Structures are given as C-alpha cells and as structure tokens.
Amino acid sequence: MTRKFENGSTRLQAGAKKFEEVTGGSAAAFIESFNDVAPDFGAYILEWEFGDLYNRPGLDLRTREIVIIASCATLGSVGFGALKMHIASALKAGVTRQEIIEILMQLSFSAGLPTAIGALGVAREAFEEVDVA
After folding, report:
1. What are the residue boundaries of the Carboxymuconolactone decarboxylase-like domain, all occurrences included (predicted)?
2. For 85-128, what is each residue's pLDDT tens digit?
3. Domain 61-132 CATH (choose: 1.10.10.10, 1.10.3720.10, 1.20.1290.10, 3.40.50.10190)
C-alpha cells in the first residue's frame, strides 16, 4: 500500500520533491539511472531516503547532510559516489568547505587514513564541480 502524506502526496512524490530540493538534480534522471540494472531501485531510494527519512522531524537538512557525509566517507570507495552528491548537497545546505574537510580529516582516526585520503579526493572533485556549475 502506498503511504500518503498529509498533503495527499505519495512517498514517491514527496521523495522526488525532497531529492530535487536537496540535490538540485532531477528525480526522474536519478530513477532512470538505475533502469538498465534495477528499474525499481531508484524509486525505492526516493521513497525511503528522501520521502521518509528526510521528511522526519528532529534534524535540520544541514545536520542530516553532515551525518550522511561522515557515513558515506566511512564506507570508503563503496560510498564515494553518494559522498560526492552529498558534499554538494551539504554546501547547498550551508555546510562550509572547511567543515567538510574537518569532518573527513576527523575520520582518519576512526575509519582509517586511506579512507580519509580517498574521501578528501572526492571532496576536491565535488568542490571543483560546484565551482564550475
């Protein structure tokens, strides 16, 4: 059963709206990026992560992005694709470049130096892409 929000929107509609607000990207393009491998997966992510979790009370968008940056970076190369997107989203939400760098440097102790070095490389790429856009 598709859960509806108080305003009548479905989880997918709410997730697509939040995704576009947070990332500045196209929800339709995000969904389509999974079509050749797992056609339903993009919609599931929008429904659950952006429709449900991002719409919960308790954390503002800036704090959510800080948490996600730390989590994705800790995953190492597995999380680096999402890390780049969330660094751009964090900048949009008001997290500074210096704060992002400090978060990633802090992880060198708990997640390992190679992971932190890799994450800083992803941050460099994300910063460059934001500068070009």
Report:
1. 39-125
2. 999 999 999 999 999 999 999 999 999 999 999 999 999 999 99
3. 1.20.1290.10
